[in-house]
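Quick start: read one record
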Amino acid sequence: MGGDYPITSVSNMQAGSGTPWFLLDTSRALKPLIWQERIAPRFASLDRPEDENVFMRKEFIYGADARGNAGFGLWQLAFGSKADLTPDNYEAARAAMMALKGDEGRPLNIKPDVLVAPPSLEGAVKRLLNNGSRIDISSGTPVALTNEWQGTADPIITAWLI
């Protein structure tokens, strides 16, 4: 198939010991995470006066039934990090994703467009993606800079990452 290519090891994880956050490229037909609906949600209720639970106990019962499955799509379209959510770590995660190549050495043209984080990182996410400027203190003296990461991804804050 086109020649021999060296075997290389790649990762879609940025090391660290902080709260995890994730970058996703959701711009393609195949997504990093896939939801398959097998049976659409169906709602049921036992709330009519002639239902036994209502008549005997004044109890109204509601429920739902559905069936589905979730799984992974292309691993290259998701990137996880446990490094602190800083502009430098965000830049490194984006660069690592965008540098991924296919089996034959062709760029995959990945463009992260979603940043997923738990509520504890909401402030950092908003500062990173919404502010037009940021403060850099790496030199010891605070310096105002243009925030080059403004608008580069849509934020999703979810309690499911806690």
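Residues 13-32+73-161 form one domain.
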